[in-house]
C-alpha cells in the first residue's frame, strides 16, 4: 500500500479491538459462544485448521482481513503469480509457485516460458532418478548407488533434508539419503565414515555454487572419492544442482550432470525444484510429483479462496495480530510427528530469512515489529522440555500444533496416545485450571498458586489425514504463503537476505588470521582480536 500501514484506519481499528479483547479469557469466549469451535475452522485441500483457540473472535478476523486488503494483499498475490519483479532489492520475480505449475500452464516471464523450463528440468531429474533407482546408473566400479549424499547448506539443505525425513516411509528403492551442510569437519567426516565410495553418489547443491561451506565439503568428498577410486570416478559419483553452470564446470562436474533452476527461485523456496533431487531419488519421481500436486493445491487455495476462509491468510494475519498487537515475539511450531522433526528448523530459514527485515521494500524503516521468531520440536518431546514455559511462563507464545490421523505404522495404540497428547495440550493451554478448581481437588493451600494454569494461551491446530508427499507439499506451501501474507502487511521484501552477507565476508577475512604463523595484524574490533589470540594460543 502507499503510506504507512500502521497509520491506516484498519490498523487503528485493530488496536482498539485488541484493547477490548485483551482482558477476555478464552474460557469466556467459549462460554459465550461454544459454536465458535465449529465456525472458526477452515479446510484447504487435506488440511483442516481449527483456529477457535485463538484470542480472537470473528470480528477480529474481519478486521484482520480488512487490514490485509488495505495492505494490498490481493494485488500482491497476483503480482507474485504473474511473475512481476516483487523482489525489488534484487530486481527479480518470485516464482517458487511456478515450480509446481502444471505442464500446460502458460506463464512467460522476462521472455522465459516458465512452465516449459520447469518441466524440462523435472523430466531430466525424473529420468536421472529412475536410472539411479533402477540400478542403471552405476558407480565407477559398476556397483549400483546405495547412498546419495546431498552437500548443500541453508535452502540447499534444509528443504530436502526435512522432506526426506518426513517421507522416509516412501523411500522404496533401497537408496538412502544423507545431508551434509556444516563447515564443521565433524559433519562431512562423520557422514563419510561408514560409506562405501563405490556405492555413494554426491549431489552438490548450491544455487550460486560459491558457498564456502558447500564447496569445502564437496572438495573433501571429492578427495575421499578419488583417493579410493581415482580421478576418473568423479563423473559417475558427482552431480550438481545449481543456477551457475560455469562454477559447476570449474569444480569439475560435467554440466551434462547438472540440474538447473533460476534466479526467481529463492534458496529457501527451492526444494520442490531441482534442489529436491536427492529426495526424488529416494522416494521416486511419482511421489515427488504427488508432493508438487500438494503444493499446487495450497497455491490454488491461496490464490482463489476469499480471505476470510483462506488458511494462509488467516494464519498469517493471526501472526500479525500477536506480533504487532500483543507484542508476542515468537511462534512455536509443534508437529506431533517424529517424521517432521526437522520441520521447525526448515521453517526457521523459510520464515526468518524472509521476514527478518528492518526496512521496507522502498528502503525506509519499518514502523511495526516484523519477523516472528519460529522455533519448536516434535511433540511429545517438547512437552517434557519447554512446555512448562508455554503453560505457566510470563510470555505469550502462540503455537501451531500439527497432527495426522493415520500413522505409517503403529504399536500398542501409540499413535492415538500421541494425538491425545496434542489435543490435551491445546485444551490445557486454552482453558487452564483456576485456583478454585485446584483447591477443590484437595491441593494443600500452600501450593495452589504453583499449580494454577492460567490458560488463555492461543494455538492453531492443523489436522491432516496422513503424512504423505501431498500433505507435506500442502503444509510447506501453507507456511510459504503465511510468510508472504505477513511480509505484505509489513511492506518488506521477503525474498532477499542481505543480512547474511557481512558475516560471510568477515569470516573469510578472518580465516587467515586463525591459521597463519604470522602475528595477526588487522582485526574488526578489540574483542575479536583478543579472541583470535586466545584461539591461536589454545590451538598451539
Ligand atoms: O545463508 C544465505 C544463503 O544465501 C541462503 O539464502 C541460501 O539458501 C544458502 O545461503 C545457500 O546458498 P547456495 O544455495 O547458493 O549455496
Automatic annotation (TrEMBL):
Q: Which gene encodes it?
A: pgi
Q: Does the keyword Flavoprotein apply?
A: no
Q: What is its EC number?
A: 5.3.1.9
Taxonomic lineage? Bacteria, Bacillati, Actinomycetota, Actinomycetes, Streptosporangiales
Q: From what superkingdom does this record's organism come?
A: Bacteria
This protein's name: Glucose-6-phosphate isomerase
State the InterPro entries in the record: G6P_Isomerase, G6P_Isomerase_C, Phosphoglucose_isomerase_CS, SIS_dom_sf, SIS_PGI_1, SIS_PGI_2
**Short name of one Pfam family for this protein?**
PGI
Which keywords, in A-to-Z order, does the entry hold? Cytoplasm, Gluconeogenesis, Glycolysis, Isomerase
| NCBIfam families noted in UniProt | PRK00179.1
Catalytic positions? 353 (proton donor), 384, 504
- Gene3D superfamilies annotated for this entry? 1.10.1390.10, Glucose-6-phosphate isomerase like protein, domain 1
* GO molecular function terms attached to this record: glucose-6-phosphate isomerase activity
Pathway where this protein functions: Carbohydrate biosynthesis; gluconeogenesis; Carbohydrate degradation; glycolysis; D-glyceraldehyde 3-phosphate and glycerone phosphate from D-glucose: step 2/4
- Per UniProt, the enzyme's principal EC class comes to isomerase
Region entry Disordered, spans: 512-531
Source species of the chain: Nonomuraea coxensis DSM 45129
Instruction: Give compartment(s).
Output: Cytoplasm
